[in-house]
Amino acid sequence: MSRTQCPRCQRPQSHCLCPLIPSLDSRTRVLLLQHPSEVNHALNTARLAALGLNNAELIVGEVFEDLPRLLNQPGYQAQLLFPADDARPLQAYAPCDEPLLLVVPDGTWRKARKLLHLNPLLAALPRVTLAEGGVSRYRLRKAPGPGALSTVEAIVQALQVLEAPASFEGLLRPFEALIEGQIAAMGEEVFRRNHAGK
Ligand SMILES: [Zn+2]
Predict the structure, then answer these.
(1) How far is residue 126's CA from residue 91's CA, in Å, rounded to a whole number?
(2) What is the pLDDT of residue 197?
(3) What is the mean pLDDT of residues 3-7?
(4) How far is the CA of 21 from the centre of ligand 1 (A)?
(5) pLDDT tens digits for range 72-122
(6) DSSP 82-143
(7) Alpha carbon distance 86, 88 (integer Å)
(8) By the 8 A CB rule, do 58 and 32 touch?
């Protein structure tokens, strides 16, 4: 069975999320670097974040040849959203500071670490972190630990901290619909499996 895909959100046309994707402006620029293994994942939340933010870019790859240009955006200070002992909490940024170019590796922890390993410029960036205690609405995929967030949730939290009182909650709408759809599809599959041949 071939299903036509929406070229923008890459969901099946029948489940296109585009009407739910906002078009939000932000002072922060977001650069998403996605490991190729994430591209065809049904829950590609990095793509939803990139589509919903006007000042965001998503690049897929393992080795990013263009990194010097991508990281040197005039008027922005590049920071990597990734854990480290000396990572600075985003809460420490004042609104008057130079806007951030928030660089977000997208993939499992293992794949994200690999991206850092393969791109020394990335690994050398100063790091920022979110406050502890973020609760994920992401119930389907095994998270690497308590409080672990999906990529779009992490970006929403980061922007809420950096640009309060602006709200970026709208970015979560297509994500929530996606999750509801996944749960419904899973239910259907379980139902079919249990009732097969009866
Ligand atoms: Zn679409």
Answers:
(1) 15
(2) 47
(3) 87
(4) 9
(5) 999 999 999 998 888 999 988 877 789 999 999 998 888 999 999 999 999
(6) S--TTPEEGGG--TTSPPEEEEEEES-HHHHHHHHHH-HHHHTS-EEEPPTTPPP---SSPP
(7) 6
(8) yes
Q: How far is the CA of 176 from the centre of ligand 1 (A)?
A: 15
Using only C-alpha atoms, the chain has a radius of gyration, in whole angstroms, of 18
In the reported structure, the alpha carbon of residue 192 is separated from the centroid of ligand 1 by a whole-number distance in angstroms of: 27
Question: How many angstroms is it from 41 CA to the middle of ligand 1?
Answer: 15
Distance 119 CA to ligand 1 centre (A): 32
Q: Which two tokens stand for residue 88?
A: 């600075």
- 180 token code pair: 């509801």
pTM of the entire predicted model = 0.86
State the Cα–Cα distance between residues 5 and 166, nearest whole angstrom: 33
CA–centroid distance, residue 52 to ligand 1 (Å): 12
